[in-house]
Amino acid sequence: MLVLNEDQVMLKDAAAGFLADRATVSHLRKLRDSDDETGFDPAVWRDMADMGWAGIAIPEAYGGLGYGYTGLGLVLEQAGRNLSASPLESSVLVAATALAELGTEAQKEHWLPAIASGEKILTLALQENAHHAPLRTALRATRHGEHVILEGSKCLVTDAHVADAFIVIARSEGRPGAEHGLSAFLVEAGAPGVHVERRHLVDSRNVGVLTLHDVHVDSDNVIGDIGAAWPGLSRTLDIASIGLSAMLLGLATEAFERTVAYLGERKQFGRVIGSFQGLQHRAAHLFAELELSRSIVLQALQAIDAEDPELPLLASAAKAKLCEVATLSTNEGIQMHGGIGMTDEHEIGFFIKRARVLQHQFGDYNYHLDRFARLSGF
Amino acid sequence: MTDLTQFRAEAREWLEHNCPPTMREPVQSFEDYYMGGRNPEVAHPDQQLWCERMAGRGWTVPHWPREYGGGGLDAEEQRVLREEMARIGARRPLDSFGISMLGPALLKFGNEEQKQEHLPPICRGEIRWCQGYSEPNAGSDLASLQTRAEDHGDHYTINGQKVWTSYANKADWIFCLVRTDNSGSKHEGISFVLFDMASPGVTTRPIRLISGSSPFCETFFDNVRAEKKNRVGDEGKGWAIAKYLLTHEREMISGFGASSGPSPGKTALETVGTDAEGRLDNSALRQSIAQYQLDARCFAATMARVGDEVKAGQGLGAASSIFKYYGTELNKRRNELNVAVGGENALGWEGDVYRGGEAARSWLRSKGNSIEGGTSEVQLNIVAKRVLGLPDA
Ligand SMILES: Cc1cc2nc3c(=O)[nH]c(=O)nc-3n(C[C@H](O)[C@H](O)[C@H](O)COP(=O)(O)OP(=O)(O)OC[C@H]3O[C@@H](n4cnc5c(N)ncnc54)[C@H](O)[C@@H]3O)c2cc1C
Predict the structure, then answer these.
(1) Which domains does chain B have, with CATH numbers?
(2) What's the whole-model pTM score?
(3) pLDDT digits over B195-216, tens only?
(4) Where exactly are the transmembrane stretches of this chain (chain A) (predicted)?
(5) So what's the architecture of A123-228 in CATH?
(6) For chain A, which terminal residue's Cβ has fewer other Cβ atoms within 10 angstroms, N or C?
């Protein structure tokens, strides 16, 4: 059933209310303008964790709520609407999923409750170049007696400068491009040889570059089987793509609703601009695209929880569609606001900037449309 | 065994025994759809047999009440019947404007006598209906229609002209919008009347389409008699009925967007070829097909979501307002891709090599989808005003 149940509706309403109050665009602006050291409000994050949101998709056995990804998706959608700054994406959506998919029992017992309570922030370190290309991972993992030594660097590591630990994807065997030989390691922040540099992207959120020089990882911190991370990583990336699609859905819908509201206010030629058919048709078309977006995101979220074998196809469908529609919604948002839309003072610009970063992460429109075609057999 | 499993078992067995093998073959062309009527067009005699058998169970229109010839099935039973028919590839036994358009309007607005008289023959495929809405000067602006109906006590006399009347030359009866009063606003004074197309004074002239066929007509009324008992709803209050019927017409047309058939991507692998990695050997075409398939998938998910919302008692959401627009535009894209993928094969007009020009004719016909039943532009107007609340110009 492509509808929300009662619990899910309550969760969605709770998230909408809280985030619209405590973690809005204007809060993001303040974080940006004050060059905030953390990059999000720790008090807000604590409250989110207290409500259980950091553990929504984490099984109850590991201290989570066990609501599944459909529930998490609803919170992510609201976070997307408000451009809420928090480690929800990095630690909850991505890192917890990677651990759940790849980790040993001991690792899950150690880390998942700490993520679910908000006490620890973990993040995935995957991307190495300008584009998402997980199979091209080249960062070297070399066996050295009991240890593995990591050498190389990662970019676009979300919340890197505030993370307690990193899940580092590295290559222990094979050439870049091969599935076999990919491994995952737990590396704690502050360990010898670990260096983090904060970077600033257009969206004023937290990312950084992680440099690893002669970093020793012991066998307890090898996540899963060495050289065999790909299947679990691949599922993690599908889930991450769907989660970000849910955020993009919220973001694109909010940008659209603000734009439609403006069309009903702004007057030119003696009437509100929303009475011009040239704008009406574009708005109505965008409405249609957003309805399609909502459907594919919900279907993809449910596919995660149902362990649907079509998950990879649905993940790429959702991400490709949401990249396309978020581009359209934010571009139309600026255009239909006219000059005011170009000002930093107006909030619509925050949406286009955040959208492009979310679109880029874990594969953009071109990446996922190509993958969708491949998975469709052509 | 639950009632539903029992229903499934019975339906399965009955279909197995009663659906002729020929009616389990995929529909190849338009002639394979059976429309019924007094003088039915029959591509294969089994079409009539299949229709009769299904009508005997009320399964030509499974969701209508039994007392009017329907199947009286609830939503779950309808789903099971659909699944069981799909399982053996059974064709729909009957397609008609009576089922998709007039029936829902009669069920909602007709009086008991009208329902008793008109619905059962629709279920049995005995009477074929056509739709008399559009006129030469009343297309998108339908309410400006001018076909006149003069009051003569127990009947009206109708004069005027309709156009684009699909299958008017083959239909037995017409549901027709006429003007009974010219004094008020254009939405007032319209009445919804039914009359026999064999009545004296009715003439039809087929119009040939770009696809080569002549499915629709100019329809002329010269002092045609229509009984008042066949006016649906009150005099002058036909506009609400007309609009309600349009929502059902649009629903039917938007279904084209989710139409199945082979994926253009798979077909293209054969007609265009593959590269060393097995991908379609033309990246521009590959991208267009992927974009289409992505949207088709999202559209199908939206139809499913809206259906689920209705089942869950949430009512018909705003998303349904986009079906006609999006579904028909998608169907046009699909047909354009089929032409691109088919190459010369899809441009053939006649002869067996081209299967009678089927691809080309389907492509050309699809252009009408975003015109009939309210154009895409009109649909966007409706969404902008009704859903987004934007003001009139
Ligand atoms: C295949 C087919 C079958 C049909 N079958 C039937 C039938 O059985 N019975 C029947 O009654 N009718 C039938 N029609 C007629 C159909 O309903 C009309 O063609 C349709 O409503 C458009 O009217 P029109 O052709 O007069 O175009 P017009 O209204 O003249 O439109 C011309 C163009 O102007 C645009 N336009 C018009 N008004 C506006 C506006 N306000 N804003 C923006 N753009 C606008 C339209 O979108 C279109 O692009 C059929 C049509 C087709 C193509």
Answers:
(1) 3-103 (1.10.540), 128-236 (2.40.110.10), 241-387 (1.20.140.10)
(2) 0.94
(3) 999 999 999 999 999 998 888 9
(4) none
(5) Beta Barrel (2.40)
(6) N
